[in-house]
Amino acid sequence: MDENWIPSVGKKRKMRYQNNIVKKPWGYEYLVYENDECALWFLYIKHNHRTSMHCHPNKTTGLTLLDGAATVSFLSDDYGLDPMNKIMIRKGLFHSTCATDERGAWVFEIETPVDKYDLVRLRDSYGREGKPYEDESFEYPKEDACLWIENPTDNKPVVHDFANSKLTIVKVSSVDFFRNISKEVNIMFLQGGIITEYGINVAGAGDVVSIKIIKELIEVFKDIREETIVMVMEKND
Predict the structure, then answer these.
(1) Is the pLDDT of residue 158 over 90?
(2) How far does Cα 114 stand from its chain's mean position?
(3) Domain segments of the chain: what residues?
């Protein structure tokens, strides 16, 4: 099958977003990382602006606030985010993110499975209710300062300083890696994951999990998939 074919909408996308920024009425977003299991996007949301109240019927998303401040709203309640706070959003759950810091909000959004067109907008401050994802007329070339993440090679971690955060991308071959982390950090799984002895994912690609929870998990689940890659996220000192 053509890799650019999108089954959910029965159309081709012209490009895979690696090279372009998508302009939004609330700011902008662009692709940071992608593989067959998940895609990671960076969002900048301007102060007092918000994304639409939307859901993703077929994919799970995870939001991590890198810098600034934000409120994630659902149809019935709100959840405030400070830097390095994260929240996982199940399939079909309507949500909206508003920047509450004067500087705005710097956000990571990871999705699995990969499908940018899996989007339903219920309400929107900019008249996009019921509209699909933005077409190519909203795209413009990335700038040199845009982040792009590559998988580590030769088992050497890749480190990025970005949005007042330290991001370390590393291959993990044993759950002992997590035992050796002493700081309170969040772990984003980009590939592979922690599994039961009979092969079921406990934490896998697309999940964002605090190291505290991971240390609890690995007391029982001691196996890890081959070629597991994670991103350790922490605030810059």
Answers:
(1) yes
(2) 11
(3) 5-141, 158-235
- 178 contacts 184 by C-beta, under 8 angstroms: no
- Token match 């099958």: residue? 1
Q: How far is CA 233 from CA 150, 203, 209, in A?
A: 15, 16, 10
pLDDT tens by residue, 170-228: 999 999 999 999 999 999 999 999 999 999 999 999 999 999 999 999 999 999 999 99
Please count the other Cβ atoms lying within 10 Å of the Cβ belonging to residue 205: 22
Architecture of domain 5-141: Sandwich (2.60)
Report pLDDT digits (tens) over 10-36.
444 444 699 999 999 999 999 999 999
Per the CB < 8 A criterion, the answer to whether 223 and 171 are in contact is no
* Dist. CA 126–CA 103, nearest whole Å: 21
- Of 73, 81, 75, 126, which is closest to residue 104 (Cα–Cα)? 81
Q: What's the rounded Cα separation, in Å, for the pair 63 and 23?
A: 19
